[in-house]
């Protein structure tokens, strides 16, 4: 599995959770695609590296069952600084191999993080972001997107 670049969904027993147990915590958004998952309900936090394997297993299972997994942003899953970015990269690596940095959106050629924004500091094309890998022989399994700023509505 590969993950497209992103900015951005400790309990040892959680690693052993079955898909049935994980889906008890996933809430379908529509009859056909998408579900939300609260890692806090599973006793996990993305900001805690020791939880990453179990969290990745839970997220992967929800993606396989529902196509899209939306992680509820709780008190323990707020990524707002460089240390948080490192934790998010660490988590994403548990989902699969990360893509190389995007040549346009990456501000650091050594980091898989890509910033998509429409402010003066970044290219004004946040509404047009897309993955460029669908043509490849082995396209990425998923994209991990983590919004930092969302409109009120």
TrEMBL record:
Q: Which Gene3D superfamilies match?
A: Clavaminate synthase-like
Q: Which UniProt keywords apply?
A: Oxidoreductase
Gene Ontology molecular functions: oxidoreductase activity
Q: Does the keyword Oxidoreductase apply?
A: yes
Give me the segments passing through the membrane.
Answer: none
Q: Which Pfam families match?
A: TauD
UniProt xrefs under InterPro entries: TauD-like_sf (IPR042098), TauD/TfdA-like (IPR003819)
Boundaries of every TauD/TfdA-like domain copy: 27-146
What's the protein called, per UniProt? Answer: TauD/TfdA-like domain-containing protein
